[in-house]
Amino acid sequence: MAKKSLMRRVGVLAATLTTSLLVSAQAAEPIKIGSFLSVTGPASFLGDPELKTLEMYVEKINEDGGVLGRQLELIHYDDVGNASSARNFAGRLIRSDQVDIIVGGSTTGATMAAVPLVEQAGMPFISLAGAVTIVDPVKKWVFKTPQSDRMAAERILWDMKRRGFDKIGLISGTGGFGASGRKQTLAVAEEYGIEVVADETYSPSDSDMTAQLTNIRNTDGVDAVLNFGFGQGPAIVTKNYAALDIQLPFYQSHGVASDSFLELAGGAAEGLRLPASPLLVPESLPEGDPQKPVVQAYKEAYEAHWDSSVSTFGGYAYDGLMLAVQAIEAAGSTDKEAVREELENIMGYVGVTGIYNMGPDDHNGLTPESFRILEVQGGDWVLVE
To answer: Which residues form the Leucine-binding protein domain (predicted)?
Structure first.
């Protein structure tokens, strides 16, 4: 009897030890953050600062002890701005790499290509792209950090209306971002008492938009002009606009809110306005603004680490990673459903881009007012609202 009792105790101890070792092994495993970004190619001005931000802060978080006592592991791929590649990489992150959450998708096209996969797999996904269609209608597993193109249109139209403009010319790229921005601008213009009296488009491969801008200039009653696009196109439009000496207020979308755009457009950008996060003008924020310390800290850290100017697109990645970390910590695990629920319940998170208040009907959590209106003065960004 004593021998049987001893063997039973030994068996229990062995099982307990095995369980403890298994739990310890699991706890030692890294939390895998997956990402696909447009690091090279035509959208590299988005993906490059996004990847640099993720790399920098994953390293910093690990130095500070990780998350839930575990290190973070960043697994990333360069989709080169190609939607098909983005879909393939999303599938690899889910099936082969078995990541815990995905923070990525530099462009709307890349994001939307991945959405069916993450929805089917039940993978929490925080997109860094702009179009409202990413989260409207709401998709169970999909969230995003940038303000939507609809919000950008609303903020621009609000500024136009308060300046007394009620008839505008619109020029937009035919790519995913530009086409969606055009659609949203046309959809909300009437709400602001503004009529779009000229509506022109250009291809991402076009190298001159003089003809389209001439048509806008020759349209009777135009008070101001808005270009909705990203990449090289808006810089070309800006230079053509200046060359034609169009004496009308000129707006760009948030798709060009970076110092790299100013470098591309040069002096032609003088006087244009756009909506952007406060990241480009942190020193102009009033004391007491809850975003000021967050924005300043990110800007200083990024520029010191990479010796290059910060951009709002890197800020989207910062917010995406920090929202993911907050959700995982609140869930107490990497259980995907629990993390998804915590993402959906985030309230009052002060980020670089804005203050996020998520909900079952809002997987972005921002308002149009999170955009600040900036103007180019003396070759630099200046806060005007």
So the answer is: 30-379
pTM: 0.86
Distance CA 353, CA 364 (A): 11
**Domain coordinates in residue numbering, the chain:** 31-147+291-368, 150-276
323-372 tens-digit pLDDT? 999 999 999 999 999 999 999 999 999 999 999 999 999 999 999 999 99
Distance CA 159, CA 165 (A): 9
